[in-house]
Amino acid sequence: MEPQPLEQIGWGSVLLVLSSACNGVLAWYMLRAARVHHSKALEGDARHLFTDVWTSAGVLIGLIAAAITGWHWLDPVVAILVALNILREGSSMLWESSQGLMDEALPPKQLQAVQRLLDERSAASGGAVRFDSLISRRAGSRNFVDVHMHVPTEWTLGRAAQLRTDVEAALMQIVPHLRAAIEILPLGQATVFETVASRAARHPEEDSEGI
């Protein structure tokens, strides 16, 4: 290592501060948009810009410290620390992006809001309508909800379909980018899954013999 004297530190520092400020503002807006749209690509760009900001801050500190102390070896040392920070941010983003390839359930607050809406609709019907088997998932920026809606057997198909449409519209109002799928069932009828699960609970020995 043969450190060279640093020149034009003043002008270089001014340009560094200005460019870092621009990158910081742009990264902040991009990160907000990424969180709204659940976009890993936007989040990656935002964190990349934030890394540039921290890199510039580290370089600026190194330049000022070297100019004040005369220790020119501080500049390459700061460069090494900046490189390690870039590696840390890159590995973190790679891990989070790989996790985004897997479907996941809706966040607890949104799931609670969905359940609250379904309970309110059931209460408004006086218990005539019941919702169960709620399943949610998130894939990228899209949200999905599947639920069973049990209605009285004397209801017409048109009445049940209208209620389903109303509930789906209400769900899409409280959860952005939502696709709701509501299956209409007669009140008191169990689904195939529920029937199999109930039988397995009553006769566990039959399932163990079939394995």
Automatic annotation (TrEMBL):
The gene is fieF_37. The lineage of its organism: unclassified sequences, metagenomes, ecological metagenomes. GO terms for cellular component: plasma membrane. InterPro entries: Cation_efflux, Cation_efflux_CTD, Cation_efflux_CTD_sf, Cation_efflux_TM, Cation_efflux_TMD_sf, CDF_Transporter. It comes from bioreactor metagenome. One of its GO terms (molecular function) is ferrous iron transmembrane transporter activity. GO terms for biological process: intracellular zinc ion homeostasis. It is a multi-pass membrane protein. Pfam families: Cation_efflux, ZT_dimer. The chain crosses the membrane at residues 12-31, 52-74. Residues 2-102 form the Cation efflux protein transmembrane domain. This is Ferrous-iron efflux pump FieF.
